[in-house]
Design brief:
alpha+beta; L,D-transpeptidase catalytic domain-like; 7 strands; 39% helix
Amino acid sequence: MKNRILIPIFTLLFVICTAGSGKVTNAVNDFTIRKSIKSNVGVTFDNFVDQLFLACQLEHSGMKKAIFRKALVGYLNIKNKQLLQDNSILSVIDYSKASTEKRLWVIDLKEKKVLFHSLVAHGRKSGDNLAINFSNKLNSNMSSLGFYKTGKIYFGKHGKSLVLHGLDKNYNSNAEGRSVVIHAADYVCEDFIKTNGRLGRSHGCPAVSPEESDKIIQLLEGGSCLFIYHPDLKTARSEYLNEAAAIKYYSKLGNML
């Protein structure tokens, strides 16, 4: 009689334990699947960056992949906030390079090619040949880092110029108040470098050569993304360098930029 009572109890306990084990197993499996999906999305984005970097032949022009990745992360996050027009142009300035080097890239992400690779000046108070100081303050005569949205063309004291809207509150929010724009400057040329050992410097504007300014300004007008980089730019201080958010947005887009 006792054995008859004990057998159903043991059976019941076995069923309960087995059921509980199944729930644990399912939970572990679900976690593993979610982790795998997240990992695969990350790998997909890594591949996308690598392929785009290679297709645009950016390494041959002296751009570092890590900087391009940051620029692309910012571009995606800004696009996700619907701050850009339907525009596949991404411009990058690397102020860690000397002014004697071509450190401006204008990239067509859709066509996967570099449209311009050019000289660009920095602010006179930022440094001589190397830019080492940056500011968002009025009358600082320094360059400002971070992400910008290009605005309208206007004609001012430097001729045809392009308005820049600073999007990074910790780095360039005063760009318009400081009249930081893209414009042509005679001191942005190889002859100036030969004579002075560096480019001339602006009041904080990313000035370009007169030979290329008209085409660059025309191309960038009206809602494209500009990223001005230097190691002083900290990921934690720029909301647009949130890589997780960019990857999430990218996973919705696929390869459609």
